[in-house]
Write a sequence for this structure.
């Protein structure tokens, strides 16, 4: 079952979620959906998810009783993670995802792979002090000098840049080769990326990144 929203969506996963992170996400993406036990997290914050997807191996009986049946979409197959199950069935301008890091690293790494494969709408993943997204082919960001800008390839990738302390023009990136972590903005930044490249910014840049996407 797909879910369509004209407004951006906050996607809540089963890992711990800080109230401040949730409030920041909701200011940008007011429609709430959840992955499996992320539904319990939503309810604990007084939020009713408009849709819940997953294999339902961790959602509580209480959540299943409180959430309308038409909002619950159990998916039995085990070939994809709950994160992928959600994004692949979501139609929205973009999603802000949280609750997908900080618990199990295998789940987090799998989530980065889902981002790299461009599953579903553009997704901004809150993870600790960072916000992570798949860099689009072209992006312009009005960043303050000194802002940390990290690029991590999820496959062979290349690009061009302006406004970075260390330009990326002409460099060949690869997961087992060169990465672009801990670069730094000298002012407004433009990026052109070819191949699956993750862009990692300080979490405070979430609103600016959402606007740019």
């Amino acid at each position: 079952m797909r879910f369509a929203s004209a407004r951006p969506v906050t996607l809540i996963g089963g890992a711990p979620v800080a109230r401040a992170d949730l409030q920041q996400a909701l200011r940008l993406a007011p429609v709430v959906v959840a992955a499996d036990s992320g539904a319990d997290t939503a309810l604990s914050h007084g939020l009713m998810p408009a849709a819940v997807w997953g294999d339902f191996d961790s959602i509580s009986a209480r959540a299943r009783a409180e959430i309308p049946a038409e909002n619950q979409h159990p998916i039995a197959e085990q070939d994809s993670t709950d994160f992928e199950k959600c994004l692949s069935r979501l139609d929205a301008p973009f999603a802000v995802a949280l609750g997908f890091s900080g618990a199990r690293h295998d789940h987090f790494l799998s989530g980065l792979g889902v981002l790299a494969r461009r599953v579903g709408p553009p997704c901004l993943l809150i993870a600790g002090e960072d916000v992570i997204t798949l860099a689009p082919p072209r992006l312009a960001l009005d960043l303050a000098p000194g802002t940390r800008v990290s690029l991590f390839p999820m496959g062979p990738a290349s690009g061009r840049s302006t406004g970075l302390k260390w330009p990326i023009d002409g460099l060949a990136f690869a997961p087992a080769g060169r990465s672009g972590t801990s670069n730094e903005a000298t002012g407004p930044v433009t990026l052109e990326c070819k191949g699956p490249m993750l862009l990692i910014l300080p979490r405070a840049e979430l609103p600016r990144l959402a606007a740019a996407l």
